[in-house]
Amino acid sequence: MPARARCGFGAYFQKGKFLDHWVTEYWNAEAGRWALVDAQLDDRQQELFKVSFDPFDVPRDQFLVAGDAWHLYRSGNVPADDFCILDLKGDWLIAGNLMRDIAALNNREMLPWDCWDPMPRPGAEVDLVRFDRLALLSSDPDSDEAELQAVYSTEFAVPCVVMNAVRNRRETV
């Protein structure tokens, strides 16, 4: 069964916020579409977060892949600061998740706290045009796989050493 990791934001953990999160996307042959699965949502978490959907078919408005989150922010419908995790928030965070999502789509699944150039840093100015282009690839990764691979490999492929933001040190991948 085809499956892939997806990086983005969950709307079901905190009302009015989209929290940094990862899920699995798998090809549901019976439905003829990609479906999202959140393996973290066990019975206890479903109760705690009042989740009313099937965690094996997470609605696309409840988990936004990074490209869709970027589009929502850029459309002006949701402020950048509503995309967050702990005290980290803003367009730079969405952009970083966008890079992680495209890396995952290229079979380089990173840790949520792994950072590498040219990933924007907290509070840094984000190249909006560049990330508008990347968001299109993340939102519909099957429409042009060759371009997705080319952009990843030529513009921001994961290097052999990344910055682990939790440990505040460089680590070999």
Folded structure, characterized:
The model has no long low-confidence stretch (mean pLDDT 96). With 173 residues, this protein is an alpha+beta fold. The chain has one domain (3-172). Strands 1, 2, 3, 4, 5 and 6 form a six-stranded mixed sheet that branches. A three-stranded antiparallel sheet has the order 7-8-9, with no helix packed on it. Strand 5 and strand 6 form a beta hairpin. It has helices spanning 43-48, 66-74, 91-105, 128-139, 145-156; strands at residues 3-10, 18-28, 33-37, 63-65, 83-85, 88-89, 114-115, 161-164, 169-172. Helix 2 (66-74) runs antiparallel to helix 3 (91-105), helix 2 (66-74) crosses helix 4 and helix 3 packs across helix 4 (128-139). The two termini are 27 Å apart. 31% of the residues lie in helices and 24% in strands.
Compose a concise summary of this entry:
The chain is an alpha+beta fold. It is 31% helix and 24% strand.
* Proportion of beta-strand residues: 15-25%
Rg over C-alpha atoms, rounded to the nearest angstrom: 16 Å
Count of domain modules: 1
Continuous helix count: 5
Q: Summarize the main sheet.
A: 6 strands, mixed
Distance between the termini: 27 Å
Helix-strand makeup class: alpha+beta
Which regions contain 5 or more consecutive residues with pLDDT less than 50? none
User: What letter string, H or E per element, gives the SSE order?
Assistant: EEEHEHEEHEHHEE
Number of strands: 9
Mean pLDDT score, rounded? 96
Amount of helix: 25-40%
Shape descriptor: globular
